[in-house]
Structures are given as structure tokens and as C-alpha cells.
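can u do me a favor
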């Protein structure tokens, strides 16, 4: 594992016109609570994982049952579409996106629930079983490109050509409004965790692809707990989008092979997330494919079955060497909070 320690805030150029992540959890909670399938997800005290990690407590916010969609992403795109419905802006609209996994499900389910249409672009590496799940939610599924970034470019071109509403979970110059609102939806899970934790954590490990989950959760954690917790962002070493950008001091595209942590296999960060995490995170960790698989396996044995993507935060904790623990201030008295962001891959 490679860990980049920073002194907050990290200096990152090129983000002057990019907004910080929202911390308006109440707005998201109020709207999400009106959904018929809304419900709080559990915070699990994983004693076996705490023993394995050598810490006092390890807590897991278990998002596998979120709103029947199997991941935290249910809080994202569907929340944006619900906000559009509140304003009457959803009628006759087609939402288009690219997805390496659960974001596409949220777009498809949200569009279906509110009477809109959806088109989801996926890359050649996305399993056919996932394409079938998208179609079951009513999405038109289009395969294009070898990577998520290729699919995203195709989705953006389709939006421009057809007058569709692009609903990405990433952000870039000139495209921030919808992803900013989407990240606001993720605040629901962190607000629940803050209320559920019996005491403030000493450390928070958050996995990241483009960084939306990590950026939203870190921002709300700082609002609730201040500078107390040390926040560590975990990415695959094959897709060091945030780690590489923080190290370079500017948004930077990472280079690497396709990762088994496919939901996190994003080579460019969301600029909103990057700006927030440059302020809120203390360290950026890269885990190997083997470490990701090992973490998911250990989580499964502990009764928390997930994919290597969903358990990457847990994997980051378990992969630490004694020296790395010391550098992060992790001791036998530490209390660690993680997020299990999805169920087993299908």
C-alpha cells in the first residue's frame, strides 16, 4: 500500500470555479424520506474486523440494502431526478449517463420511478449481467468504449446531439450543478452514520472512484466532528485519480490497467470531490488488486459480503503495516469508521 500524507488543505490549482461539496444533509434527508422504499441502513460494529485490524472498534456503514438497489448510489442520481420532479422539470426528459456500476442503476431507477426515460452507456468490460439489470429498470443500454472514460465521452456526445439531460456522477469545468446535487444525496448515509455512532471515530476510511462518496462524507464528517478524525481516501493503485491529482497539485488523469475494483476504476477525479478532499482528507492510500481481494474476502468471512470495490475502505484498514498504522496514529485504542458501499458484484 502506498500512502500520501498531506497537510490540510492541500494546494490544488485549476479549481477556482468549482464549488465545494454541499453539507446540507437536511435537504437531502427531507426529500429522501418521502420515498416509499426509503429506510435507514445499519451501522454494524464488526468485532472480528476490529480484532484483525488491531483496533478497539471498527464500524461499518452497510449500504447493501439501500432502497432496494444494493448500494449507496441509490441516494445519488435518483435524488437529482427527484429534485427535478419537485420543480416539474422531469416530464418528457431523457437522462443519459455512463456507468461502471451502480450509478447507472440509480439513474435508471430514478427515471423509471418518476416517469422519465434513461439511456446508460457502459464500456466493453462491464458484465452482461449488469447490463441486464439496467434494462430491467427500464434503461436503454448502449455499449461503447473500452473504459469508463470512453463511455462518458459517448454519453456526453449523445446528450449534446439529442438534447438529453446528462447526469454524471463526476464533475468538470462547466459541468457542476447536477453532480453537486448528486453528492448532496450521499450526505444522507453519512448523516445517519453520525447519528448512529456512539462516539466520534478517530479515523475514517473512504473508498473512491471519481470521489463523490468520499467527498460528501468527508465534508459532513468535518462539520460534525471537526479536525478530530483522520480521514483516509482509498483507491485502487490502477486508478489513482485523487491520489495522483493531489500529488501533482492539479487535476491529473491517471494511467493504469483495468482494475478488478471496477466500480472504482476511474482515471479522472470529480473536480468537486477533489476540491473538497484537498481540504478535508489527511491521506490518500492506494491498494493493490491483491489487497482489494483480500479485504473483500475477510469482510465476507465476517458476514459482510461485498465486492472488492464495496469493501475497499475495509481493505485499506486491513492492508496497513505496523509502520503505516503508526504514521496514521492508529493504535489499539482507535475507533475506525468505514462504508460498505455495495453488495457482492453480480
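np, heres the sequence
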Amino acid at each position: 500500500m502506498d500512502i500520501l500524507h498531506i497537510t490540510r488543505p492541500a494546494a490544488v490549482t485549476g479549481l477556482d470555479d468549482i464549488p465545494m461539496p454541499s453539507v446540507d444533509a437536511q435537504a437531502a434527508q427531507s426529500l429522501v424520506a418521502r420515498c416509499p422504499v426509503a429506510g435507514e441502513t445499519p451501522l454494524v460494529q464488526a468485532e472480528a474486523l476490529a480484532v484483525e485490524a488491531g483496533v478497539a472498534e471498527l464500524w461499518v456503514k452497510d449500504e447493501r440494502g439501500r432502497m432496494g438497489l444494493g448500494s449507496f448510489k441509490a441516494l445519488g442520481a435518483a435524488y437529482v431526478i427527484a429534485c427535478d420532479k419537485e420543480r416539474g422539470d422531469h416530464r418528457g426528459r431523457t437522462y443519459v449517463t455512463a456507468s461502471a456500476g451502480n450509478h447507472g442503476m440509480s439513474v435508471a431507477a430514478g427515471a423509471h420511478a418518476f416517469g422519465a426515460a434513461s439511456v446508460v452507456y457502459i464500456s466493453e468490460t462491464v458484465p452482461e449481467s449488469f447490463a441486464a439489470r439496467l434494462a430491467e429498470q427500464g434503461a436503454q443500454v448502449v455499449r461503447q468504449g473500452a473504459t469508463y472514460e470512453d463511455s462518458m465521452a459517448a454519453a456526453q456526445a449523445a446528450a449534446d446531439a439529442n438534447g438529453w439531460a446528462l447526469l454524471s456522477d463526476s464533475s468538470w469545468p462547466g459541468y457542476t450543478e447536477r453532480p453537486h446535487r448528486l453528492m448532496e444525496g450521499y450526505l444522507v448515509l453519512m448523516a445517519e452514520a453520525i447519528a448512529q455512532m456512539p462516539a466520534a471515530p478517530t479515523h475514517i476510511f473512504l473508498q473512491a472512484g471519481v470521489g463523490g462518496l468520499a467527498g460528501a462524507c468527508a465534508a459532513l464528517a468535518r462539520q460534525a466532528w471537526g479536525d478530530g478524525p483522520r480521514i483516509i481516501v482509498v483507491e485502487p493503485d490502477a486508478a489513482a485519480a485523487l491520489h495522483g491529482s493531489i500529488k501533482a497539485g492539479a487535476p491529473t488523469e491517471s494511467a493504469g490497467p483495468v482494475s478488478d475494483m471496477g466500480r472504482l476504476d476511474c482515471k479522472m477525479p470529480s473536480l468537486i470531490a477533489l476540491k473538497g478532499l484537498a481540504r478535508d482528507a489527511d491521506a490518500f492510500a492506494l491498494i493493490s488488486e491483491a489487497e482489494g481481494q483480500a479485504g473483500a474476502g475477510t469482510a465476507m468471512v465476517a458476514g459482510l459480503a461485498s465486492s472488492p470495490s464495496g469493501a475497499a475502505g475495509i481493505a485499506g484498514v486491513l492492508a496497513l503495516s505496523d509502520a503505516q498504522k503508526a504514521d496514521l496514529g492508529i493504535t489499539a485504542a482507535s475507533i475506525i469508521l468505514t462504508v460498505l458501499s455495495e453488495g457482492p458484484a453480480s
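Residues 177-196 form the longest helix (20 residues). hope that helps!!
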